[in-house]
Amino acid sequence: MHILKLTSRTFYVPITLLKPTLKETVASAYLCMRAIDEIEDHESLDAKTKQYLLQSTSDLLKNEFDNHAYQDLVTPYKDKLPEVSLRLGDWITFCPDGITKKITDSTSEMAAGMAKWVEQDWRIESKEDLDDYTYYVAGLVGVMLSDIWEWYDGTKTDRNLAIAYGRGLQTVNILRNQEEDQERGVSFIPNDWSRDDLFVYSRQNLNLADEYIKDIKTRNILLFCRIPLALAKRTLKALKSGREKISRNEVETIVDEIKNQ
Fold first, then answer.
1. What is the DSSP secondary-structure string of 30-70?
2. 36-54: per-residue pLDDT in tens?
3. Which residues are CB-contacts of 51 (< 8 A; sequence separation ≥ 6)?
4. C-alpha dihedral, 30 to 201 to 162 to 60, nearest 10°
5. What backbone torsions phi and psi does residue 185 show, to the nearest 5 degrees?
6. Most CB atoms closer than 10 Å: which of 51, 61, 246, 251?
7. pTM recorded for the entire structure
8. Is-contact 208 142, C-beta < 8 A?
9. What biological-process GO terms show up in the record (predicted)?
């Protein structure tokens, strides 16, 4: 849980509130995807290296994961890559047997998609591009979570709404980090869009996320899903009013309110 706390602002608190089996599963699955994400986001790795690492990792995840081969892959970059990426094999090992394949499949697809967008230099020119990019980097998180819910207790959710759940959270992050992204020469806003258009897109996906959680009846899972969604909605409202983020006190209040519902 220490590595999880270091790497996740959105999911750490809700994961800690899950029951033991779900907590271990969701934490391990999240860390698998975070391991990939840290490669894509790395500030000092060049694009060619990122593509190589991401695609090679995707290929390794398509079969029974060979951690020795993965360590051979990442060892030349061990002084640059964070611990969460170097320990991908550990996170896979911690996943319960019955759900491991679903988690590695989604992580493999995410890594391949990220490799594609690194190659394209993250050039988001249209809504279709934005849909595609956010599917790989966040929509697949929703897909993975839905797979876990069904494995855990048979909870069935709509796949497209699960994608929208992840996409909605991601677009709030895009809005919050827009200036920082522009400083490094990246824009996730389609060519003919304004910032206001991205606010609309984000709200649309967060509304679909509301529909996603209506299929969830297990209270512990519902609690998990509601917290990031509520934080994203409050952050979107704060950004629209000109604030950079919500306060720690606001976060704590939102979490307490949801826990006590």
1. HHHHHHHHHHHH-SSS-HHHHHHHHHHHHHHHTSS--HHHH
2. 999 999 989 999 999 999 9
3. 115, 118, 119
4. -50
5. 80, 25
6. 61
7. 0.94
8. no
9. farnesyl diphosphate metabolic process
